Prior knowledge:
- This protein is an alpha/beta fold.
- It contains 16 helices and 20 strands.
- The N and C termini lie far apart (91 Å).
Amino acid sequence: MRMNLVYINSLGKIGNRNAQYGDYEFDLIDMIDLDQFDGIIFVGDNYNLEGMAEKVIRKLRTAKCPVVSIAGAVDGFYNIEFDDAQGIRTLTEHFIDHHGMTKIGFMSGYLTHPDARVRLDLFRRVMREHGMPEDGAGMFEGDFWFNKGNEAADYFLSLPERPEAIVCANDYMAIALITALKNRGINVPDDIAVSGFDGSIEGKEYTPHITTGTRERVDIARKSLSFIKAICEGRKPDTDLKILPRPIYSQSCGCEKVDYKLATEDINHIMQSARDFSYNLYDTESILLKLNKTETINEQRSVFIENFLSIGDINSYFLMMHIDRNGRPAHDSDYISPTGNFRPMIVIDWHKHYKTDGEIFSTSKLIPDALDDKPRSFYISSTHCAERMFGYTAVEMSGKEIYNEFYNVWLLSMAINLETMLKNDRIKKLVNTLEDLSIRDGLTGMLNRRGFDELSRDAIQSIDGKAVACTIILDMDGLKIINDDYGHHEGDLAIRSVANIITKCCNSGEITARAGGDEFYVFSVEYSEKKLERFISKLRDLLDNYNKCSEKPYKVDVSWGAYICEIDSSCRLEDMLKHSDALMYEQKMQKPNRRK
């Protein structure tokens, strides 16, 4: 069976308390165009946040392709169910019929979870059918994890009659309970027998090995794909199919004795796994430190290439970033809002299997086109931090191995780093804006006096040897009359018009500024009398042309004074400006009908 697989990954709740991360993963799921798929397999128990599975189901109901649910029956879907109830029945009746026990307790998962309710309801039914109290020797609500073992042990040991056996709703709680019982001097299975459920790897490696019911995952996967294949080929499979868990009667119920030679081998295997975990952990810590130093996407790419072996062997990796209508990526502080389009910001294609020409993607096409028709499997994960989704990653693993948990650490770290990049970019742009405001005139956009002084002095200090420099001071004629007769709005317009004209006259590296009020400064090194003549000629032409075309009831004009001299890096700008100011004032005083 040849087909491409796209696995939409969901981390959901991070740790015991951080549910916020999972809330925003739905943003990507909600955006994905389902028309690109020939079939969808829904695994609802992967979603550990209340209401998330229901959101995904509502989205999947819009799909035109067949949807197969393998974690619980969903109306309108093709359903392949694990018969958890029958599995719990088998294990409970094993204690009753095979071991002859009558005092049997039950450790449930948290009762808001549908799987927990199904398993508890069946346990109670079996108890009633065998003429026993429906809660057996006692019922304790656990958490489907390792955290409630001590509380559960204390509860069961405090009962008036100690249970002979305890059925746990999954292997993790069984392991936690057995560990707690051992710490209290209770031997399993001799004093109390225990069973789990789900057939986990941890349950097989723990001593004693956990008696459990295993979900036939490979069988489920094959049947799910066969369902979709049959529908695509026009055949009609059964709407629903139940898979019975296979019971594994092992050491924790007493059906097998602990083989200490095998137990030693298990311990050695676990120790090797722990060492591998430690090495990966050290590498991950190194990645975090390196990521913390990155300031660009390209630097992130370099860190990934250098450290990718920590997350497993990969064929390709893509970071697809949200872009706005202007093409800006989501980690740019000027980014406005998502458009549903993505740009590949990091592309790692070791074997050159894909077309990666920087094209823009929508969620109707999650990954680049391959250059061949070989079937592939991709893992898609949302990339987001706090309340912002940057985009998603697509990783293709080599062989049959999926990525390990350290990829999720990489994913979270990268998202945090993108958030840091965004904030740093925002701060940098804010600082630049504030710096610009501190040296810019708000009315004209020209440099203000402070900006003029800083840039001009920098230019003077950079002179090597001698240079010819020029300062020009220009003062508007008649601004007070314009303000008095036509209002300050017209006065401001006249100032901006003069500022624009002066700016247009500067084509030889001049530094220009509005020094305040109606006064403008110009400074330049490597100047000459010819450049000054060209500046003044263009100034006169632009002023005349403005006055002819403006249709204003007033004219704009300026008086100016220019001073040219040879200077070195020790020159005082103030001395040159004094000469220019005197020449400007002299010209202004000589004008007929002079008005301030």
